[in-house]
Automatic annotation (TrEMBL):
InterPro entries named in the record: AB_hydrolase_fold, TEII, Thioesterase
Pfam families according to UniProt: Thioesterase (PF00975)
Gene3D superfamilies assigned: alpha/beta hydrolase (3.40.50.1820)
Protein name in UniProt: Thioesterase
Gene Ontology BP terms: lipid biosynthetic process
UniProt domain Thioesterase: residue ranges: 12-235
Protein family according to the UniProt entry: Belongs to the thioesterase family.
Amino acid sequence: MADKGERMDRVTLFMFPYAGASASVYEKWKPLFHESIDIVPVEIPGRGKRFPEPPLRRIGPIVEDAYTRIEGQLSERPYALFGHSLGSVVAFELARKAKRLGKKPPVRLFVSGRAAPQVKELDEPVYLLPDERFKQKIRSLGGTPPEFFQNEQLLSLFLPILKADYEASDTYRDEADASDKLSCGMTVLHGTEDEPCDPSEWSVHSTGTSDFHEFEGGHFFINEHAKPVAELINRLLCTKEERTL
């Protein structure tokens, strides 16, 4: 449990899931956060309570959908954004959208398990791979229980969602100009065994300070290290000086 010390101004932390995941992956994190942090996992179409809705195949519509769901909360109190992998892009573009619309900026943006937007990650789009090669790629990243790949019923339900998410990720292009630069602090999180990540490539997107933190593990290090990740977030969001950097 996080330290319940000095009372802080409350902050809302919007959390965006990785490809194929529901927002419920963050529910187990709630006890790890300081009492001044209210976490709001943001569900996108095609999973969880929104499973009946068709998944979205481009980042733009995903960001638009997420923005409409949280817009009313952006002016209530300070807020921060956290995303892992695909969720990092959604969180990042949502911060940009808030800026373009003249909304209050986040106090901090947390991007995890993702190279900066201007970096081309893959030569071959994953979503275009034949099903067997696509499944091999997903297996290689870890984070998906082996029994998932042995259950044809589950595969028939969730493979289209995964492919839609990878299509959104693979087709994303950074088309911003200098006016889109953020002003908030930015924290970059990375797994030591994941694809290399240069934090300086993220830092160019904000005039605020940036910091970089590595955790043991591969692409899904956040599942193994939820507690230290939450402790880092607590430290950065529960210290007023850190919030404003």
